[in-house]
Amino acid sequence: MTKEEAAKKAPRISLHGHWSSRMAFVLAVTGSAVGLGNVWKFPYITGENGGGAFVVVYLFCVFLIGMPVMMSEVLIGRRGRRNPVATMSLLGEEEGSSRRWGLLGSLGVIAGILILSYYSVIAGWTLAYTYKSAAGNFAGGSAADITAIFDTFTGNWLEVGVAHTVFMALNIVVVARGVERGLEQAVRFMVPALFVLMLILLGYSINSGHFAEGAAFLLTPNFAALTWDSVLVAMGQAFFTLSIGMGAVMAYGAYLPAETSITGASASVVIADTTISMLSGLVVFTLVFANGLNPGQGPGLVFVTLPLAFGQMAGGTFFATVFFVLLIFAAWTSAIGLMEPAVAWVVERFHKTRVQAATMVGSLIWALGFGTVFSFNVLADVRFLKGTIFENVDHLTSNIMLPLGGVFITVFAGWVMCRNSTADELGGAGPTYSLWRFLARYLAPIAIIFVFLKAVGLLPDLAGS
Q1: Among 112, 200, 328, 451, which residue's CB has the most CB atoms within a 10 Å radius?
Q2: Helix, coil or strand: residue 281
Q3: Distance CA 413, CA 108 (A)
Q4: What is the pLDDT of residues 293-320, one digit of tens each?
């Protein structure tokens, strides 16, 4: 079969159903993208990497690298209509290449499993903090008091493990219900609610008296504080927060109706995701400076900064509780996206029901998650390569697996798939298609490879740098 013949094949039917509308898809992928990566991870890695200069690089990575990768992943998913492994194998053969492209799908599925193994633990923190907020544990607390609460909680492996277990159980329930009854219903309420709460918090931070200081830290570039490792972190965060390179977007693309514009839907997701990240940064850094805290504190930043701020404000107990409930929702929508590719693969490969597949995959992720649970307590002193088990898994997935997955996704979409196939999925060979094709074939993969090789020390320093 020639490439042209493959491009003319009748559209496949997804084995898992479809999104009911374009908005459902946008909400689902936005939900997968918007989560702890925006509210928890973006502020603390921005603080660790110098603020404004890091944000500039991050925005560049999101729009000029992340978006073409997302469009590539969606079009591949919709073209194949199967789980990421089967889709890549099928399209590799149809496009005149090789079924071994299925290994790329496997890389994404494995990355999603590994990311969710620690993501679930951090999401479990939000469950525990919802209870602590409702109980008034943060009311009137000093910075030392709030820090002690966080250290005591993360130091108790049993308490953290229980929270991790509960979150994974919630995740399994949603994924087991399928596309329309589970995934779609979950995001229709959670994603809009998160936007509303972020705007409420932004209003509070503007009136805190330190908004200008927080905004200056986030928006004023200081390129002297930027390193090549920071650039790699920014690119990894762009991939992490957009949920690309891990199979989630490809799996969701498989359920996208044929008449939906991939370009428009992808742009909506990228803009929504970036907006939430920037709002989170403004809120968190304003509260950091208002309370004399360190913006480079690390993974505990949101779990120390926001409880401290809520503890000092009128109605803080209520606002803190609502915030952590909605943070659970944000984490939940992202987690089901991370889990979906592996579940779809088990259903198709082993002919299991959704309930069986979700239980099997969820149990594996739950067990792996205890590596992260122990990284903050009983195994905190066990360090190798990049640090604790959690730090190693985070570095492996965000800075290695996701960028490499992004390179091969764009290479496949831009070079292996014929022009007829990709133009058919992207609505014709107009200016938008030409721009995507240039970015996917040249800028995105070359930039990813260069930054990756530079950060891991395989390229020499530039003269004068």
Answers
A1: 112
A2: helix
A3: 15
A4: 777 666 667 788 778 877 877 778 887 8
